Amino acid sequence: MNQYWITIHHPDDYDPFLLEDEAMHREIDVLNEEMIAAGVRVFVGGLQPAGTARSLRGQPGGGVVITDGPYLETKEHVGGFWVVEAAGLDEALEWGRKAAIACRAPVEVRPFY
């Protein structure tokens, strides 16, 4: 089995308290239960907004600089993710399709090495 990262992308101004409702949470719960029953879910996690991130950059001489905010300045960020084990890309894409529907957001599916 191969492992895949299924990521959910949110715009920078995404506010889960305004944009997520009980129906959406139920659909995500159902998807998680389906993944568990199928034996594909390895790990799942939701992330706080990108503004809560801290970025660390190595410096010459071994120092590290820590700055507030995400590493990349973009209009979207990763809002959550699953790690799944699937027989191949087609199966992983099917789980990604279900994630896009449940989360009502763009999804990226990427294999691990």
Structural account:
This protein is an alpha+beta fold and 113 residues long. Helix content is 32%, strand content 37%. The chain contains three helices and six strands; from the N terminus they run βααββββαβ. β3 and β4 form a beta hairpin. α2 packs antiparallel against α3. The model has no long low-confidence stretch (mean pLDDT 94).
Short description:
This is YCII-related domain-containing protein. This protein is an alpha+beta fold and 113 residues long.
- Estimated structural class: alpha+beta
Instruction: Report the CATH superfamily.
Output: Dimeric alpha+beta barrel
CATH architecture grouping: 2-Layer Sandwich
Instruction: Give the end-to-end Cα distance, rounded to a whole number of Å.
Output: 12 Å
Spatial arrangement of strands, main beta sheet: 2-5-1-6
Largest sheet: 4 strands, antiparallel
- CATH T-level fold name: Alpha-Beta Plaits
Strand content: 35-45%
Q: Gyration radius, to the nearest Å? A: 16 Å
Order of helices and strands: EHHEEEEHE
- How many domains is the backbone divided into? 1
CATH class: Alpha Beta
Shape descriptor? globular
Helix fraction bin: 25-40%
Family: Belongs to the YciI family.
Domain YCII-related: 44-100
Pfam families: YCII
Protein name: YCII-related domain-containing protein
